[in-house]
Amino acid sequence: MVGIATPDAKQSESYISTAALFYTFSGNAKDEKVVIRLPHVWKDVWAELSEARKAQIDEQDRDVVRGLRALVRQRHDQELEDGVIIQGAFRGRGAKHTHDSGDDGGQDRSRQSTANGEYFQKIWAEKSSTRKFQMMLQSRMQLPMWNFREQVLTAVDENQVIIVCGETGCGKSTQVPSFLLEHQLSRGKPCKVYCTEPRRISAISLARRVSEELGENRNDLGTNRSLVGYSIRLEANTSRETRLVYATTGIVMRMLEGSNDLQEVTHLVLDEVHERSIDSDFLLIVLKKLLIRRKDLKVVLMSATVDADRFSAYLGGAPVLNVPGRTFPVQVRYLEDAIELTGYTPADSGPDKMVDLDDDPAESEGESTKSDISKSLSGYAARTRSTLAQIDEYRIEFDLILQLIAQIAVDEHLRDFSKAILVFLPGIAEIRTLNDMLLGDPRFAKDWLVYPLHSTIATEDQESAFLVPPSGIRKIVLATNIAETGITIPDVTCVIDTGKHREMRFDERRQLSRLIDTFISRANAKQRRGRAGRVQEGLCFHMFTKFRHDQLMSDQQTPEMLRLSLQDLAIRVKICKIGGIEETLGDALDPPSAKNIRRAVDALVDVRALTQAEELTPLGHQLARLPLDVFLGKLILYGVIFKCLDMAITSAAILSSKSPFSAPFGQRTQADNARMAFRRGDSDPLTIYNAYLAWKRVCQSAGGGGKEFQFCRKNFLSQQTLANIEDLKGQLLTSLADSGFLSLTEDERRALSRARFSGGRGRRQQQFYDIPRRVNLNSDNDVVSASVIAWSFYPKILVRDAPGSKGLRNIGTSQSISLHPSSVNRGRHDLRWLSYYHIMQSRAVYHAHEATAVEAFAIALLCGDMYSGVIVLDGNRGRFAVPDWKTMLVMKVLRTRLREFLTRSFKQPGKLPTAQQEKWLDVWQRIFTQDFQDRSTAGIMSKG
C-alpha cells in the first residue's frame, strides 16, 4: 500500500480495514457477501482491489504459460537429438529383462516352493517327536473334540467355511486351531492360522495352553522357538516362526482395514461367535465380501450354543459340525435355596446403603410379578419367603454370597463342592468389593486363596487362578462373563452366579449411550452353571429366583449391533472401503433399522467426522482409532491440541462410565451439598473432575490408604468408581498414544504401563500416571476447559432465549429442556449458553445431563458456520451477529487459523506446530486467559 494516501486518519483506518477484510474474505463465494454490508464508497475500493488482484493473477498465469512453452520446446529438441540412442537402449533392456524372467525366475520360485514344503515338514517332524508333545497328546486325546479331528479337517478341505458348534468343555478353542496347524505343516503346506477371541485374557490363556500342548517350554511362546503367539491391543507376542496366532477380534478388524485382504492368513477361526459382539458381527459382514475375493481363505466359526444354523444360513449353507461336551451333572439351585440354606436376613436399609445417582428409582418389579414370585415359593419356610420379599433382585447381596460360601464349605452334603468356587459378577467394581470382603473376613483367612480375574488386572497376577491349589487349600475365583465361555478354569466344582452382566445400550434417537447392569439370558445362565461340571459332579447357585429364570429372562442375549451406537461401525465401513454405510450394515446377521443407521450417519456429519457425501474427514480418521463415541473422542483429541488433556481424558473416562457421587438413603441433601462443595466453572464435568483431583491428592499423600476411605465417606464419593475411572483413564491414554496423536517418550510409556498394571491380587495402593505438562498447561483454566467441552460436544448446545427466563431450548431439536436436578447449574437463570453430553427423558420432562456453561465468544469461535459476519449454528437454529468490522475481522482470522491448525493436527498427528501456528496459538491462549468481560469481543450479540 506504499504510495496510497487518505485525507485523514479515520479514512486511513477505514481503508486498511477494508483491505484487511478483502484479503481475509475474498476467494470464498459465501464469505465475499460481506461486501454488501460496506458503505458505497468502500464497495468501490473493494471492486478496485478485486480488479487489481485479477490483473495480478492473469499476469502470473501468463508467466506460467510462457515457462511451460519454453520447457516443452527444450524437451522436444532433446528428444530429437537423443531419441535413437534412448529407444535402442530400452529395446535392449526389455529383451534382456524378458529373457531373464522367463528362465531363472520360474526356476527360483519352483525351488523356493519345494524348499518351503520340506521346511514345514521338518518343523512339524521335530515338534511332534518330542517326549513332551507325546505326553500332552495323551491328554488331548481325552477331549471330545479329538474324536472329531478327521471330520473337521475333511470339512475344511472340502468347504471354504464350516461351523463347529461345541458345548462348553469340548476343547474346540484349543484343538481346532491346532488341528489346522498340524494338518498343514505335516503335508508341507504354508500355514498362518489366526484365531479371534473377544477378550485379551482369552487370547493369552489359550495361546499358552496350545503352546504347552505342542510340547513347547513355558517361555517359548511368541519366540522363534514356538509356533504359537498372541496379539492383543498394546502387545504382539509373535515372531517370524509363528504359525498360529490367538488375537482379539479388534486386532483382526484392524488388519482388515488394510488393503492386502489378509493375504498372509491361510485360515481364520472365529471363536465365541454366539456372543454376538458388535466386532464379531461386523467381522462376518466383511468376511462375506472378502471370501469372494479370497477363494483360498478357509474360515471356521465356533459357537458354544445351538444357534449355529442361523450362522450357516447367513454364510450360504456352511456345514455345521456338532460336538458334545464333557461335563458331569450339575445341581442347580436358586436365590430362594441360598436363603433357605443360610438363614440369611438382609441388613436394615439404613444410612450405609448406597444408591447410585444414575439409578432410576422407578425401575422396580410390578406388584403382579412379586405376587407370582411369592406363589412359586409355597414349599419354602415362611422366613425364607419373608426375606425374599425384602430383597431387590436387581442388587447384589454381597453378605449373602459370603454366608453362602462359608455354608457350602462346612455343610456335610456340600463340602465336596467347595474345592474351587467360581463367582460371576458384573464388573471390576463388584469384583473389588467381594475381593476385599473375603480378604477381610476371618472365615477365609486360612486355607483359602482368592483370585480376581479381569482384563484390567496384570496378566501375571491372574495366571495362578488356572492352577490347581495344593491339597487342603481351597480357592475362590471372582470373574465377569469372561469365564462363561472365553476362558476355562479346569477345576471349578461350584458356581455362584449373580445373574447379571454389564451391558452398553444406545438410543440412536436420543443419541444416548449408557452402561447398565442387566440380567443375563437363559443361554448365559446355562453356560455359567456348565462351568461347575468339568471334573466332577458340580453345584450352581443362581442368585435370582427360579421364577425369574423360567418366566422373565430372555432366551438369548440381544446382539450388540441392535443395542449399541452405530457411529463407530459407520466409520469402520468407510475405513474398510466395503461399500455404502446403510447397504453394508443392512447385510448383517441381525441388521439394525435403516432409521438408526441414518441417524448415526447424520450424527457423524454434524460432528464433521463424515462429509455430506459420507466420506471420512481427517477428524474422522482420528476418531476411528479411539475406543470412544465421537463426542468423547473429540474431547480428548481437543484436549491434546489445546493442552488440557488431563481434564479432557478424565472427563471422558467419567462420562463413559458413571458419576462417582452417590447418596445414602435419607441423606440426599447432605450428598448434594457435598457435591456443590466441589463446584467448578459452572460445569458438571468440571465439578466431578474437581472431586477426582481432590481424591487423587488424598491417595498420593502420606498414609493415603486410610485417609482415602474417610475422604470418600465424608464427601459421598464411591471409592470403587473413582478407581475404575483411573483404570479407564489409563486405557484411553494408551489408545491415544498408540494412535500417534499423543507423542510419549519411552520413559513416559513405561511409567504409563507401570501405573496401569502395578495392581496385584488383594488390596492395592492406587497408582496414578501424571500426564506430561506440555499437553496439560490449561487443565486448570476453566474458560479453556469449558470451551473445549463445548467444541467437542457441538451441536449439543442449549440456549436461554430470553435472558433471566427459566426455559432452555435445545438448538438441535428446538425442544424445551430442563437441567437435571443434580446439575450444579440448576436454578442458574443467568447462564445463556450451555453445552451438554446427553439428554434423558423422565416421565414427560427432558433432562440435560453433564451441562457446562460456556461463553458466547467461545461458541462463535469454533462452532457453526460464518456467513457475511453472522455465525449460524445447526441450520440457523442459533445465530451470532457480529457488531462491527473489527470484531468480524478478529473472529474471521482466528476461526480460520484455528481450523487450519485443527485440520493439520488431524491430518498429521504428532507433528509439531509451525512457527506461524505457534503464534496464532499464543494469540488464542492470551485471549482465553483474560476475563471475557474485558474483551472487545464480548460485544458479540446472540440470537436464539
TrEMBL record:
PROSITE patterns documented for this protein: HELICASE_ATP_BIND_1, HELICASE_CTER
Locations listed in the record: Plastid, Chloroplast
One MF term in the entry's GO annotations: ATP binding
One Pfam family here: HA2_C
Organism: Fusarium musae
Main localization of the protein described in the UniProt heading: plastid
Entry keyword NADP: no
Chemical reaction(s) catalysed: ATP + H2O = ADP + phosphate + H(+)
SUPFAM superfamilies assigned: P-loop containing nucleoside triphosphate hydrolases (SSF52540)
Residues in Helicase C-terminal domain copies: 409-577
Annotated Helicase ATP-binding domain residues: 153-324
Broadest EC class assigned to this enzyme: hydrolase
CDD domains: DEXHc_RHA-like, SF2_C_RHA
Ranges annotated as biased composition (Basic and acidic residues): 97-111
Record field: compositional bias (Acidic residues): 357-366
Protein name (record): RNA helicase
Keywords tagged on the record: ATP-binding, Chloroplast, Helicase, Hydrolase, Nucleotide-binding, Plastid, RNA-binding, Transit peptide
EC number per UniProt: 3.6.4.13
